[in-house]
Amino acid sequence: MAISFNFFLLLLLLAGSTTAFPNFFLSPSFYSNTCPQLHGIVRSAMKEAIRNDTTIGAGLLRLFFHDCFAGGCDASVLLDDTRASVGEKTAPANKNSLRGFEVIDLIKKRVEAACPQTVSCADILALAARDSVGLLHGPRWNVRLGRSDATAAEQNAASFSLPGPGSSLPILLTMFAAKGLDARDMVALSGAHTLGRSHCSLYRERIHGDSNIDPAFSAALRSTCPLGSGNATVTAPFDRTPGRFDNMYFKDLVAFRGLLKSDQALYGGSLVDPLVEIYSEDNAAFGRDFAAAMVKLGDLSPLFGLPGEIRLNCRKVNA
């Protein structure tokens, strides 16, 4: 007998609660004795970075998500290609979209000067993502630390395990459930799109073909993102306050102004509609759930000790 769509979604709503387990090796106080300056160094660098470019916060948050979702939170996404191996940066979901590598390089340089060979690039990335949100008026949370860095990239995982701009709700729920993240985590983490912008090529199909879209919204976007090849440099913000971490993303979904198909897939006749509506009305609830989901995201398959390492340069493995 065929399983109903709503029952299928209900199963996925419950899936994450039974597959995610706390990681007892990670701790917010991991570097309290070995690098007590760490949090101050990262936050100071992130203040500088955001002051110079308010969009970099979105880049670092995306960088952390793409690292964790493809093989675990091990800084493998930071590795450059070599003659011997292809990294994750050129995977379809990452190519021409990931940014913020130079900020991580700067933070790593300062951390190495203060605490040599002590703090992993994976932990630096986790802290930079948290501070990106906090400095843009979003929530803060205790980042659990103690990860090692990968010595190889996860190119295949980066190519096939990351959600795409055209992902449907069942696909999104399935991909997140496979990582031990439930529907609430998925919807809250999707709210990261309250920051940043997307390229025309990723939303062109939606604004020219979808019916579940506000007509005035789509008309305004079509003027700069026409059918055909269009202008590769054209971008649009995910919501009306792209430089502020708030619940405007969910307000826009309720108004059918989601930029990507995968954004609007969260609202418009599904079991996650109530979550979207709650977040659209209660910014504090969104902030709390986003912070909790980021802690769970940071627990995805971290490395401890060998075969990992503490990279001296986040872009390459140690010699």
From TrEMBL:
It catalyses: 2 a phenolic donor + H2O2 = 2 a phenolic radical donor + 2 H2O. InterPro entries: Haem_peroxidase (IPR002016), Peroxidase_pln (IPR000823), Peroxidases_AS (IPR019794), Peroxidases_heam-ligand_BS (IPR019793), Secretory_peroxidase (IPR033905). It is found in: Secreted. Heme b binds at residue 193. The lineage of its organism: Eukaryota, Viridiplantae, Streptophyta, Embryophyta, Tracheophyta. It comes from Zingiber officinale (Ginger). Its main location: secreted. Substrate binds at residue 163. The keyword Disulfide bond applies. Ca(2+) 1 binds at residues 67, 72, 74, 76, 88. The record marks 62 as: Transition state stabilizer. Residues 1-20 form the signal peptide. Its cofactor is heme b; Ca(2+). The active site is at 66 (proton acceptor). One of its GO terms (biological process) is hydrogen peroxide catabolic process. GO terms for cellular component: extracellular region. Residues 25-318 form the Plant heme peroxidase family profile domain. Pfam families: peroxidase (PF00141). Keywords: Calcium, Disulfide bond, Glycoprotein, Heme, Hydrogen peroxide, Iron, Metal-binding, Oxidoreductase, Peroxidase, Signal. GO terms for molecular function: heme binding; lactoperoxidase activity; metal ion binding. PANTHER family: PEROXIDASE (PTHR31388:SF5), PEROXIDASE 72-RELATED (PTHR31388). Binds 1 heme b (iron(II)-protoporphyrin IX) group per subunit. Transmembrane segments: none annotated. Its EC number is 1.11.1.7. Belongs to the peroxidase family. Ascorbate peroxidase subfamily. This is peroxidase. Ca(2+) 2 binds at residues 194, 239, 241, 246.
